[in-house]
Amino acid sequence: MLELHGASRILASFHDIVPNWIFAGLYFSDTFLKKNKESVKKVLQAIEKAFVFIKENEIQAREYLPKYTGIKRDICMIAALREYGAAKEPIERINFQRNLMIKYGYIKTNTPIEHMIDYQYLSQ
Predict the structure, then answer these.
(1) Helix 37-56 crosses helix 58-69 at what angle (to 10 degrees)?
(2) Residues 6+ apart with CB under 8 A from 104
(3) Main-chain dihedrals φ then ψ at residue 29, nearest 5 degrees
(4) Are 2 and 10 in contact (CB under 8 A)?
(5) pTM, to two decimals
(6) pLDDT tens profile 15-70
């Protein structure tokens, strides 16, 4: 994609360097979860369904990108897409990423986060 805009060639992507890098997560406060349990469950299950759709229908999924991103279709059809796996990330992968962020100074402490991760609203 960058080559089309005059940038030099990218030799590696995030996934080449650190496979299955976790780019984002969702956070809901306990108060919000108590008041909106069913809505949270529906949103998370919709995201899971979207991941499966993207993985199984890449070309069709790419067709939605211009409408929702404003990026030209020809670029959307060749741009790298995130590798969508399971919505439940193994704690080992989360800890690995945390350790990399500590190593390179993005965060300062090895604070345990296991108590903050709750997959009960996802599909079984």
Answers:
(1) 120
(2) none
(3) -70, 160
(4) yes
(5) 0.67
(6) 677 777 787 788 899 999 999 999 999 999 898 898 889 889 999 999 999 999 99
